[in-house]
Structure formats: C-alpha cells, structure tokens
Amino acid sequence: MRGKPHIVLIGPMGSGKTAVGKQLAKQLRMRFVDSDVEIERSTGVDIPFIFEREGEAGFREREREIIDRLSAAESPIVLATGGGAVLREENRRVLAERGFVVYLETSVAQQVERVRHSQHRPLLRGVDPTERLTQLMQVRAPLYAEIADLAVRTDGRKVHHVVADILHALRPRET
Ligand code: S3P
Question: How far apart are CA 139 and CA 84, in angstroms?
Fold first, then answer.
C-alpha cells in the first residue's frame, strides 16, 4: 500500500480532520491520535490557554515536539494535525517522511460554517472569521499541497464519503 507507517491528516480548521480521522482509524483498526489533544493532555491545559500564556510561538514549539514524538511511534496511527502544523519546515519534512499525507481540501466558506460555534480556536477570537481564514489559506494552501500524497475535497460532503475516498486511495493496486 505505502512504505510509510502512519496516515496523517492535514488541512485548515474546520476541514474535518478529527471526524474523518476517527472514522478512518476505526475502519482500518488503527489508533487515532489528534496532536492538539495530545498537547492538551501533556500540558494539562487547553490550547487557548497556551496561546494566552506563551503566544503562538510557544504553541508552535509544543506542536513541533508532539508531532515529532507521535510520528516516531512504531505502531501505525492515524494522526490528525492542527491547521497550522504545516507552517514549520521540520513538521512538513517529518510528516511527509513518516506518513501517507491526506489533505482535506476545504473552501473558506465551508470552514467558516464548521467553526461557527467554536470557542476553542484562539486564531479566530475577535476577528472576522472569513477574513482570517482567507489570509491563513493564502499562506498555508501551498504548504498543504506541497506534502499531500492525496487531496480529498470535503465541501458539502459527509464524513463517510470522505473516508471512503481515502480508503479507496489506500487500496493496494491490482496489477
Ligand atoms: C490552528 C488550528 C487548531 C489548533 C490551533 C491553531 C491553526 O487546530 O492547532 O488553534 O493554526 O490553524 P484545528 O485545525 O484542529 O482546528
């Protein structure tokens, strides 16, 4: 199927990495791990609190450490990453080397729709979400594309359809 142990989900906030990752892991009988949840577990505080205390730079350093640690695991995992994980060159390298990288491609309108009620995303606090998510995508879209082994559109699609596309791409090719 692929010479890399893990499946890595990348994409912006509201692209469905957690929902898709959980279902995908279940189907593949693999462990699902979310890097944001692991950061919260290891620090004992939530992500907004880390941003408040240490700024985005502090959060990015913690994110780099956790991504390196999780992706070094020998047993295969489905790893959902935070929307900004691709910003660091080191993360892009490590994820591309150790995982089959799936980019959940999502329009800004759909991202906004999905994060509308979230209080958990410090980068969207007190700003216009459409404007901010558009800015973020300008910088990040090429970075997602750079390391993606597979890109799947998620707009207006149910989680199980997105999962089915990924499973289809992972099927061993018949020769
Ligand atoms: C971020 C996305 C969040 C989280 C943090 C920063 C980003 O994860 O890592 O709030 O920079 O886009 P999700 O993509 O899971 O919302």
Answer: 10
- Helix H or strand E encompassing 104: strand 99-105
Instruction: Please give the helix or strand (H or E) that residue 47 lies within, else none.
Output: helix 47-71
Q: pLDDT for 114-133, tens place per residue?
A: 999 888 999 999 999 999 99
Q: Is 23 exposed, middle or buried (0-12, 13-18, 19+ CB in 10 A)?
A: buried
Distance CA 163, CA 150 (A): 12
| pTM across the whole model | 0.96
Contact 31, 124 (CB under 8 A): no
* Cα-to-centroid distance, 143 and ligand 1 (Å): 15
Residue type, 51: F
42-85 pLDDT, tens digit each: 999 999 999 999 999 999 999 999 999 999 988 999 999 999 99
In ligand 1, which atom is closest to the CA atom of 120? 10
